[in-house]
Prior knowledge:
Elements: H1 3-8, E1 15-20, H2 30-36, E2 46-49, E3 55-60, E4 66-71, H3 77-88, E5 91-97, H4 103-115, E6 120-124, H5 145-156, E7 174-179, H6 190-203, E8 207-212, H7 216-228, E9 235-239, H8 247-255, H9 261-269, H10 273-293, E10 298-302, H11 307-317
Parallel strand pairs: 1-2, 1-10, 2-5, 5-6, 6-7, 7-8, 8-9, 9-10
Antiparallel strand pairs: 3-4
Helix pairs in contact: 4-5, 9-10, 10-11
Amino acid sequence: MKVSEYIAQSKNKPLVSFEILPPLKGKSFQSICDVLDPLMEFKPPFINVTYHRSETQFKKMTDGKFEKIAVRKRPGTVGICAAIMNKYKVDAVPHLICGGFTIEETEDALIDLDFLGIENILCLRGDAPHGEKSFTPEIGGHHHAIDLLKQAVNMNHGKYLEEDLKNPVHTNFCLGVAGYPEKHAEAPNMNADLKRLKDKVDAGAQFIVTQMFFDNQKYFEFVNNCRAIGIDVPIIPGLKPLTTRKQLTVLPQTFNINLPEELVNEIHKAKTDDDVLKVGVEWCIQQSKELAAKGAPVLHYYTMSNVKAIKAIAEKVF
């Protein structure tokens, strides 16, 4: 079932969804179960699974020279989605990214997802490779998320890269994109960022999942600004609790977000890691309750494999 359909049938009652990371290479599907098993009591209609591009590493050879190799540390997104749907009987939403794919490989991935009965995809550009400052597309790949989105939309219309296919199947993907309540780091200003988002919706995006934020007013302003320029698809808030003191600097640097002064002050008062976790969880609970009360269609939690914190929040909200 499609994300848009779940929201339409929810009768204005907020749904819950969770986002998980594929396990590190060499780990089993059990590590996914260890995260999801405690969360399934909250009846999420869908689970998001992130995708990670290859990283470049240099391996020292026996002759002393170094060879440049590509290593994907967290493979398996498509297989994980299929396994989740089989085990838990919920829909999976794989992330599909531009980085690391040619357009031909993207088409193959979309065909695989269609064969598996996966109806929802989150279309993303993806981050720059580890250790690099700017995003570099694969040779023969997409530069921007809207290009990836348009390819998936074309397949929904039965248009493949090979134009002479006979009676090609029309896929039936519900396509989502990312939104940034505090502006994408590379956008020159908020208006430019909103225009790019509107272009994606006009191109066929059917829902938006936001970057994490810690000030609900940022989300409410973002939604109002989106509606003002004609973006009318569901806008799903992305949430994550602060769990360590280190995140006070890591999260703003990594995700281009601001942390409210009140939250920062409370974290600074915390004497132990457990105290920090309690503050972060309580803040996220209050965020969640306000968002739910004001009509957010889904509360989407970035688990980062921290199931204890996410479960504590969900128990107070759902």
